[in-house]
Fold this sequence. Notes:
heterodimer, A: alpha+beta, Penicillin-binding protein 2a (Domain 2), Beta-lactamase, 2 domains, 7-stranded mixed sheet, 5-stranded antiparallel sheet, 23 helices, 23 strands, 20% strand, disordered N terminus, B: mainly alpha, two-stranded antiparallel ribbon, 16 helices, 2% strand
Amino acid sequence: MSTTTPLPPDLPPGDEPRRPRRRRRRPPRSVLRMASFTAFALVLFGVLIARLWFLQVIGGGDYQERAEANRLRTVVTEAPRGAITDRTGAPLVTSREVLNLVAEPQQLEGPEGVAALRRLSVALGHPPGYFSAKVKKAQEARPFEAVVLEEETTPELQAYVEERRSQLPGISLQAAYVRDYPQGSLAAHLLGYVGPIPAEKAKEYEGRGYLGNETVGRAGIEAEYEQYLRGIAGREQVEVDARGEVVGRGVLSQAPPRPGETLRLSIDMKTQKALEAALRAEVQGSGTSTGAAGVALDPRTGAVLALASYPTFNPDVFQSGSAREVRRVLTSPSRPLLDRAIGGEYPAASTFKAITAAAALETGLYKPGETIDSPGSVVLYKTRFQGFNNQAHGVITLPEALEVSSDTFFYELADRTYRTQGWPMQDWSRRFGFGRPTGLDLTEGESAGLVPDLAYKRQTCDRKVDPINCSWRPGDSVNMSIGQGNVLVTPIQMATAYAALANGGTIVTPTLGRAVVDADGRVLRDLVSARALRPLGLSKDNLEIIQSGLRRAANGNGGTATPVFGALPERFRVAGKTGTAENTSGIDHAWWVGYAPVDDPKIVVAIVVERGGQGANSAAPAACAAIGAYLGFGADRCGTGAKAN
Amino acid sequence: MATFPGEAPRGSARDRAQSAVAGLDWWLLGSVLAASAFGVYVVRVATEGDIASDPGFFFTRQVAYTLIGLVALFFVLRLDLEWLSRYVWTLYAVLIASVGIVLVLGSSARGSTRWIELGPLRVQPSEIGKLVIAFVIAVVVVERIKSMDSARLSLVVAGVTAIPAGIVFLQPDLGTSLVYAAIALGILWVAGQPITHFIVVGLVVVTLAAAVLYLLPAAGVNVLKPYQVDRLTAFVDSGSDRSETGYQLEQSKVAIGSGGAFGKGPSGATQTINDFLPEHHTDFIFAVVAEMFGFLGAGLLIALYFVIIWRALVIMRSAATELERLTAAGISAMLAFEVFVNIGMNVGIMPITGIPLPFMSYGGSHTLTNLAAAGVLLRIGRRGRAAAPVVA
C-alpha cells in the first residue's frame, strides 16, 4: 500500500489521528474492522458449539430414544383366544380369523400419507378427516404402534385395498381374531362376552403383561378364565428404513404368538339347551312372567350341568353390534344382562321347608315319627297365621308335611325354634350355604342372598315408627320357616343346598370350569378336583326323613309336584320340592328344586320363574324337561302342573 | 497453460512444483485438505446404501469433484488478480448472462433449475458466481473508495450485487443469493464503510423479512413460494410442523442429538443409513457427522472450520494490496456465512436455505468453487507474506 502516509511521530500507533475527510479510511480503522470480523466469527462458532452441546450432550438420551423409535418397528401377530367347549368338547365359543384394515403411522407422515388416509376415508364413506383423526388419537395413546382403522373388513374392502396397494403406503390388511358363537346366544350369561380393556383398568392389565389393545374377557367365564383363554400376541422387532422396509439385520427379537388354551366346561349342551328352551317357554307362556332362571348340578361333584337365565342376550352384540344395539342390551327394563341364576335373589318359599326340617330334626325340636296337627291356619301369640289357601292337612308327620307342603306344620316347628335357645333356623340356613355366595367360578355377579336374624332386624328397622320391629318376633320365625319374610336365596344356592340333600350331606362348590385342555384334548389343568367340599353335619337318619318327604312331594298321592313327576319310571324317579313365593309384585314366583334319580342322584335342578304362579305349574315342568334331557327321557313323559304350594 | 504477469519464470518440473507450494499458508491448506478428505469419507459412508446397484455412486463422483477442485486450486495459485481486474466487467457480464440463462431455462422447464447442462456435466453458475461477485465487488470498491462518497459507494455495491443476486433468487435459490449479500457486506465492512450503512441494511433486512413472510402474505401478495416460507420458518418450531421441511429438520435434530457425546459410529448411524435423514450427503452432511461421531467429532469439525476462517482472516490482514485484501474479505465472509448458516440449519437455529457445507457437502460446482476460493486465499497469503515477511 504505497499510498499510505506514515503516521505522525507524536501519536502512539493505533490511535486514530484527526485528519482531513478524504484521508479517513486508514489502516488502524480497518484493523479494527478485521479484528471485529474475527471476533464475530468466533461468537458465531461459539453459538454453534453451545447448540451442539445442548442437542447432543444434554438432550442426547431423548433423541436417542426417538432415533430408536424411528428405527425399530414392532410387528404384532395376534394370537387367537382359546375356545370354550361343553363337557364333551363341543364348542360353545371359538375364535374366527378376520382381516382388519391397519395403518402404520410412521409411514403415514408427510403429505402422501395424509392424502392416502383422506382417499381411504372418502372411499369407505366416512368424512375426509375420519381416519386421520383416528390415527392421531391412537398415536397419543400408543405412539409408534399400528392403528386399526376398520375391523373385520368385507371382501369388497379387501379387494379395494389390494388393488390400490401402491397408492396406499402404510395401509395394510392384518389378520386378527374375533369371537364366534356357533350356538348363538346359548349359555350367554355364563359365557359372558369380550371387549376392549376398559380405560379405568388399563394399569391393572398392563401389570399382567397386556399391551393395552387386546380384546379381553369382560364378563362371565370369558373374564373368569381370562388367564387361560387369552392368546398372547407374538411380537417381532425389526429394523426399518424411512420407507418402512425391513433393513439390516432384519428381525432383532422375536416372541412367537401363543394361542389361548381351550377351556372345557362342565356344561352339558343338551341339558343347557333343554333348560333354556323350557325357561323361555314358561316365561312366554305365562303372560305375566318377567324372567326365569335355572341351575342344574351334578350333586356328587358340584359340576354345573346347565346354568340359564331368561331373558338372555347375544354376546356377539358386544363385539360387532352397533352402539345402539349395545345400549339396548344394557338399558332394557327386562335386564337381559342380569344372570338371574346366580345374581337373582328371590324368597325361597316352600323349598326352604327342607332346611327348616333339618334344623328341627337336628336340634331335637321335632322327633322322627312325631305327628302334628296341621289345620288351615293357626293362632300363635294372639296372631292368626294362615296356611297356603287355608288348606287343612290333618295330623301328619314331617315327610307328609313336605309332601303336601303344609304351612301350619312348619309354623309349629317355627314356634318351637322361637322358644328355644339359639337360632337353629339361621344356623342351618348358613350350613346349607345361604347368606353368602356359593363360590361358583363366576365370582362377578353372584349374590349372597339373605338369612335374616336379629342383627339384620336391628339394622333395618325404623326405631321411631316401629320400634318393636327391631327385635326378632315370633312372626319372623313363622315366615322364615316357609322361606318367606326376609329370606332371600339365589337359584345356585338352592341347587347347592339340595345337592347336599341328594349326595348324602356334603356341600359341594358349584363349578363351571372342568379342565384346561390343549389342542389335542389333553388335560393341562384340572379345575374341579381342587374345589372345596364341606360336610353338612346332618345325620343319616334325619337326612333320610327329609329325602323321603321330598320323594313323596314329587310322587306321593298328595305330592305337590306329583302331576309333573309321578308318571316317571323308577329309574328316573325324582325327589323335590315346589315353592310359591309371595313377593311385592303381587304375582307369586314359582320354584322347584329337586334331584333324580332318587336312589343314585346324578342331577339336581333348581328353577325359579318370576311371577310364574304356583311352583308345580310353572317351575316343575321346566325342571322335568332339564332332568329328562340329562337322564335321557323325553319331556313328553313329564306331566303338566296341577295343584301346588 | 497461460503464463500470468508477475509469475516466476519457468524452470524444471521439480522447481515448478517447489515454487507452486512454496510460501503457502500450511494451516489453511492443511485444514481445507482435511475437510475435503473427511467430506469424501462421510459422503461415502452416508450414501453406501442409497443406490443399491451402485454403492459408490456419490463417493466416486465426489472424489472426482474434489480432484477437479484441487486442480482449480493450484491453477488459481498462479492467477494474478491485478491482471484479472482488467476484465472485471467481462466477468460480471458472463456471470449475469449465465445465471440469466439458468433462470430462463429453469422457468421453461417448470420449476426450479440451478444448472446448465454441458454434455455429461451439470454446471451451477451461481456457485462459481460467488467467487466472481467477491472479486467484482472488491474491484469496484478499490477503484472508487477514494473518489466516491461512502453512501454512494455502498449504493453502487448494492446495485452490482443485487442484479446477479436477484436473478439467482428468482431461479429460485434463496440461499445462494444470501451468500452474495453476505460477500458484499463482508467487503464493505472491511473496506471501512460507516457503521450506519450496516445498521440501515440490518433494518431493511428485518423489515423485508417481516414483509415477505408475514405482512405481504396477509395482504395476499406472495413473494416466496410456500416451500420457501416453510423452510424459513420451520426452525422456529419444527415439532409442530407437519410439512416436508419440518420433518427434515426434526430428523436432523434427532440424528444430531442421538449421536450423543461420542457418536454411534458409521455403521450405527441409523438416522443416516436408514434414510430417515434426507439430503444426508448434501445440505445435512453435518448432521451425519454429528450422528456418527457425536459431540466430539462435530465439535472438532467446527474447530476445523474455525481454523479455516481464522487463517482466511489472517491472510486478509496481511494482504499485499487493497484489492487482494477485499477479495480475501469477500471469501472469508462467504465461507463464514456458509459454514454458520449450514450448521445452524442442521442444528435447528437457522432457517433452511439450501446452502451446502463448504468442502464437505456432495456437489461439483460448490466443491470446485470453494477449493478455488481456497486457492485465491493461498495466493493472497503467499504474496502478502512475500511483501511483509513478518506476520503479526
